[in-house]
Each structure stands twice: as structure tokens, then as C-alpha cells.
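Render this sequence as a predicted structure.
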Amino acid sequence: MSRTKRVLILLGILAVLAILIGDAFSGGCSQDGLWSSSDTQTQVDVAKDEGAATGGEEAAGEAAGSGEKGAEGAVSRTEGDAAIAELFEAKAQSTMVKGSGQVLRLLSDDNDGSRHQRFIIELASGHTLLIAHNIDLARRVEPLAVGDTVSFYGEYEYSEEGGTIHWTHKDPQMVHVAGNIEANGKRFQ
């Protein structure tokens, strides 16, 4: 391979890295960018509700980008019980959300395709969520028992049962924003 080709390839790689780093510092990409969404995706503008969850926001830590607006003006990340209730009412999809709740039920793993540890949590408001934690990409949340308090940062997907939280792990391709679960003093991602 000629020196000119190697230089051109290196410049192409550097240009891609510059775009990715710029997007990371600007709060992610719009629908036209790397975090593309379906045309039917609903995103809601939800104001942070101080004290919506009793202790939920403190347990989950400081908001990562709460209320941060993307290039198109839509809120891509929210937090707290009130925000999750509004996402549910709007039948929202693909919205990063932060919250916490108590484990209500432990379910069997979903072993179809990527393996997911599944459990249901109840928020302080009484709203329930299915947590689907990818155990092919992240450590299993252990120990975990009914009644444990769990904090999460992941992607909300609407369901009639209350919604599902997934993407509670790092993306190996570094395209999707990383999520996490915190339980019993440990962070899993």
C-alpha cells in the first residue's frame, strides 16, 4: 500500500473520530445523526420535577443531561417518577431516563438473541417498569433480591404494562449513550 493511501486512510479515521468526539461533547446526535430513531418515535419535553421521587433522584445521582436539548430541540434525556409518568402517557420510545425503585419481582432471563436479566421495579409513585439488562454486554446485577432499591439510567420504551428500560450498559460500538444500573452499592454497565 502506498504512503499516500495510508495517509488518506488515517485522515479518514481521524475525521470520523473528530465527529464522534464532537457529538459526545455536544450531548449526542439528532435523528439524522448516529442515534437515529424511527419516524414514529415520540420524544417529550419533560421538565425536571424536583422531589417527584422520594429519594430517587439522589439515589440515582446527579442528572446526566437532564433537560438537555439536541439539535432538533427535543429532550433526549429525562429523570424521575414524573418524567417517566409523562413518557408513559405519551407512549414515548427511545428516550434516555434516570430513576430508581424497589425490586418487585425477579423474572427468568430472556435467552432469545442477546441474553437479558429481567426484573420488575416499582417507582415511589407506584408505576412499574420492566428492566431488561443485557448480560452479554454487562455483568449480571448480583446480588439482587425483591425489596432491593435499584437506580437506573437507560432507554425507556413504552409498553401497556408500564414500559421497559434497556440499554443499561455501555455500547461496544460507542454509538449509543451508555446506561447503567446501581444496586447494593455496585454499578453495573
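Summary. DSSP finds three helices and eight strands in the chain. The CA atoms of residues 100 and 151 lie 4 Å apart.
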